[in-house]
Amino acid sequence: MFNIRARMSxxxxxxxxxxxxxxxxxxxxxxxxxxxxFSNAYNQEINRQSTQDVSKLKYAVDETILDRVIRLxxxxxxxxxxxxxxxxxxxxxxxxxxxxxxEVSNFLTExxxxxxxxxxxxx
Length: 123
Hints:
- By secondary structure, the chain is mostly helical.
- About 80% of the residues lie in helices and about 0% in strands.
- The longest helix is centred in the N-terminal third of the chain and has 75 residues, at about 1-75.
């Protein structure tokens, strides 16, 4: 009779151990799969959002900064009659001509009107 009890207790302990391991495995495996799936989805969303933010920033920089720089070049350094004062030093030496230097300085310090449609058609 003692042998039957010992044998039964080892069987119960094995079944208990097997059930505990089975519960642990069955509860951890889906969690690991979900963690892997959601981390991949999260990383893809972060990459997509970052790419979208960089694109928006690129367009914002292009529109605000580069457009102003291009306008600056078109306004001040294009070969139109209103820019003759600024275009002259590009082709001639004015280092000894105080009048031309003052003329360029005065032209640069004058407030400029924003570009109009008429000025854009000339450019």
